[in-house]
Design goal:
By secondary structure, the chain is of the alpha+beta class. Helix content is 32%, strand content 16%. 54% of the residues are buried.
Length: 524
């Protein structure tokens, strides 16, 4: 394992080692020493990036641990025949068992099914039947996505014994690619309302500090991937539910273009805004996941019949000349100072890579939030009206509190919001005539405390994820920094509809040069 050592710990009279001295990325005061750190990775020039992390904030992953390897690294070994899917699944199951009593990421662990699938994959690969970059790779599924024969609860008492008969389309595609379902991970109730303490499943904790939440609503997905319980997970996103947990858990998430992945088998939140996307520890891994789970579904009327590009092949590392519009006015003066500082560092990295970054202005963030809220609550209430009237006591308090406003909205409000959405999205997409990508903060602050009395996630700062949910264009969340307390922060890059390839190329180049790729929570 690579690490760093604080100068304050080298005061026993020994000579200082002749290694590069760099500043800890939590430069606003390391919790222990607020000093400069000595990089202890001789010969590893790839780690001498602009962003270095002290030992108090993160540890570089141990390459001898199978759960530390990326999907791409695992796939290379599987393809070469030097690694078995059985070993990967067992390593993940061991880590789930070791950590989940603290993290609460998993609702259901399908150990026997995963072991059987791993043995079948081992035989198939040994006999020359390797299917794809996802073959033999275990993944977890957010518990609002249907899985045939596996309980799918949406974190609600209403569905706590619900066992679907059919897989969601995205799950079927991943299994056809050879991926292995290892379990279901926690969500907010019906992906709405916030963390809930009055339901059978406690909210997941953040692997970077278990005194904090893991975001939401794809909280279990974010926690499980960050904790290396599993190399990949599926999440859903209606207003930011992939990107919020990714930002605060220090992982990567991609909300694809609306229609790029099927909604069939997702428990609906907002029909016109629901997306399903991948979560992993690297951009490259998200590219592999998206390539396997994207595709036309004739049973989903929103599904687009377009060829699926080679997303991994698009990761050339070259973003010279790319035009990036920084939407700074959405977060300036609203986000925490640490988020603003992390964004400044991200801009510098992108410019060093040859991208041209310029500030651009779009409609006010609150306009997008208000429009999305009217549409979202109207459609959400339409889904759950019957159950809310018949058995309101079976819903958790945060969900009831969130959805009740939907009962007060009129049809006129909904229609006007749809018209407003068209205007907002048209103006956003017009900006893509000027730039190739849009850049903004991933979330306005670090992960919130694990405290039932702390209030909702929207209590203090507005959700900066909502504009791209409303627009339906692809958006990527990538880690970009840490707070002084060692909690991760993220950024968002957004592209034109169906231009996930450019988005992933930029995110991959940024990730490889910004210095956070390959770090894992220090407490785990």
């Amino acid at each position: 394992m690579y690490g760093t050592l604080c100068e304050a710990e080298l005061t026993d009279g020994r000579p200082m080692p002749k290694l590069p001295i760099v500043t800890c990325s939590a430069r606003r005061g390391c919790p222990r020493h607020a000093r400069r750190y000595i990089h202890l990775a001789p010969g590893r020039k790839d780690l001498a990036d602009p962003l270095e992390v002290c030992a108090d904030h993160a540890h570089h992953i141990d390459q001898g641990d199978l759960t530390a390897l990326t999907i791409a690294e695992l796939g290379a070994r599987l393809r070469q025949g030097t690694l078995s899917p059985v070993a990967i699944v067992e390593a993940c199951l061991d880590r789930i068992e070791a950590l989940d009593t603290r993290l609460h990421a998993f609702v259901t662990v399908t150990a026997d099914q995963a072991r059987a699938a791993a043995r079948a994959a081992e035989r198939r690969i040994r006999n020359g039947g390797y299917r794809s970059g996802m073959d033999g790779i275990p993944f977890a599924i957010k518990d609002n996505i249907d899985t045939a024969g596996i309980r799918t609860t949406s974190n609600s008492r209403l569905l706590q014994d619900h066992v679907p008969q059919e897989n969601a389309h995205v799950v079927s595609l991943l299994e056809q690619a050879g991926a292995i379902v290892i379990g279901k991970v926690a969500t907010w109730e019906f992906a709405q309302g916030g963390p809930c303490w009055d339901l059978p499943w406690p909210p997941p904790r953040n692997p970077w500090n278990v005194a904090h939440l893991a975001g939401g609503s794809s909280a279990g997905s974010g926690a499980a991937v960050a904790a290396r319980q599993v190399p990949a997970a599926l999440g859903t996103d209606t207003g930011g539910s992939l990107r919020y947990p990714a930002a605060v858990c220090g992982i990567v998430a991609l909300k694809p273009t609306y229609g790029r992945t099927s909604r069939r088998g997702l428990h609906p939140n907002t029909f016109s805004l629901d997306h399903c996307g991948p979560m992993a520890r690297t951009v490259e891994d998200c590219a592999l996941l998206l390539g396997a789970m994207a595709g036309h579904d004739p049973r989903d009327p929103a599904s687009i019949d377009e060829p699926v590009p080679d997303y991994r092949g698009a990761l050339t590392g070259d973003i010279s000349g790319l035009r990036i519009g920084l939407v700074r006015h959405w977060y300036a003066g609203v986000a925490t100072p640490e988020v603003e500082a992390a964004m400044q560092g991200a801009v510098r990295t992108l410019e060093r890579l040859g991208a041209h970054v310029e500030e651009v202005r779009l409609d006010a963030l609150q306009d997008y939030i208000d429009c999305k809220t009217i549409i979202g609550l109207s459609e959400l209430y339409a889904v759950h009206e019957g159950d809310l009237k018949r058995q309101p006591h079976r819903f958790g308090r945060p969900f009831r509190k969130s959805i009740i406003a939907g009962a007060l909205l009129r049809a006129e409000d909904y229609v006007q919001a749809l018209r407003w959405r068209t205007e907002l999205v048209t103006r956003m997409f017009a900006k893509f005539r000027q730039v190739d990508l849009l850049l903004t903060a991933g979330w306005m602050q670090e992960a919130e405390p694990y405290d039932p009395a702390a209030g909702s996630r929207f209590a203090h700062r507005p959700p900066i994820t909502m504009p791209f949910s409303l627009a339906g264009n692809p958006v990527l969340s990538v880690p970009c920094g840490y707070t002084a307390a060692g909690l991760p922060l993220g950024l968002q890059l957004a592209a034109r509809p169906f231009d996930e390839a450019t988005l992933l190329r930029a995110g991959d180049a940024f990730e490889r040069h910004h210095g956070m790729r390959g770090f894992t929570p220090p407490t785990l």
